[in-house]
TrEMBL record:
Protein name from the UniProt record: Uncharacterized protein
Organism of this sequence: viral metagenome
InterPro entries named among the record's database cross-references: LicD_transferase, Nucleotide-diphossugar_trans
Amino acid sequence: MLAVCSHRGTQAEVAQSIELLHQAVGNMFLTRFYAGDAWLDRLRSVAATEFLKQNWAKYMIFIDDDIIFMPEHVMAIYDDMEKGYDLIGGLYPTRSGTQLASYGLNDMGGIPIDGQIQEIKWLATGFMGFSRKLLERMVDELKLPLLHKNQWCECYPFFVFCQHETDRGNPMLFSEDWEFCEKAKRIGVKTYADTRCMVGHKGEKVFSLSDVVSHNRYLEAKENRLKGILNTDNADKALKAATKVLHGLGVPCWIDSGTLLSTVRDGDFNKYDHDIDVRLFRDDLPDELMPVLVSDLYKEGYKTIQQNTGDRKQILALWENDVMLDLKFVERNEDWVWYHVWDKVPGSSIFEKSDVVTHVFPSRFYKEFETIDLRGIQYLAPKPIEEYLTYHYGDEWRTFKAKPEDVDMTDFLWDAQKMPPCVKTLDQLKELTARPLVGAPSGE
């Protein structure tokens, strides 16, 4: 049974969510709407009491009048209750969007969002499922009285605002949903959240002139991005500067990834790309030359330089004309060549952690290099180039960042969508590259 309690009217999007559920599973769920009482906790108690007395179903799911969901969210909670979870629901933010409406077990109330079922302290009623058995036990074991008997608001006080003391002894006014979880706790029933079920919460906002200005600026910025985000003339200068530094240190390097792809496909830099891609073998640049590399890049116009991991795997450098250099230190053994790809910059003040995959290639692509012309300069590239690009991006490599709407596409996102042959997890990399690195001490 689905119960929607409201004191203001159900949002159209919620009605649409319920209709989508009925289209998906037919009349599997009875839906009841409860309104006409500004005292929402009493209204919830009336709904739960009616559910208990009428014996319509084994389970009940509360859905607030502003919670937007998909059919699979309801089915997941139903399946969870069928598996024995007597009090479980989905998660959603408060209407301000600043925090979750439910509260976890740690001191700050955090809940791990990992697609698993997590025990929590308090579950918000906006998307809460519970069993008939739980209500029966509450009535029997907590000796709940039947209030307003034979009146329209007859109910057991399942949901009430109530003062409680926290675990640290601090007095706190509990909302009706959190207090319901406390009742469950008193009879030995734990509260859970299914973190697969992340539903939406429709909020309200008072709009002002500043919102109009911000929106127009957003539209302007979006339109400008669709015209291209890479100045190709500046990219040409930045690439020449980077390769000049590496050649000056006697280090072979080559163009790769998006820069190589656009050179083959377009004969030029790709204005929808966000950086230029240069690679070198890590063992070709000794550690003691790293300070020299950074210094020389700075002298050539790269004013912001960040080595984005503790280990030497990548340098991101911003040229003076806002061109980003992605310089990766490539590792190898006799069979494989590989480097790492992050979804965002790890270790920075913004992102402490980052998801990471690896791009792993058969070493045959690097036994010899071939040259390719880009704006009159001959750059090295893995050989054979088009076979390499197919291994790198898959059979659809010619479509990578080919249109204005692709400006926000990244290698990491492309990998997740297309799963080209080169993409490996860290565990897969470890298994593939068990042989010693080229240039590593033999131990003899």
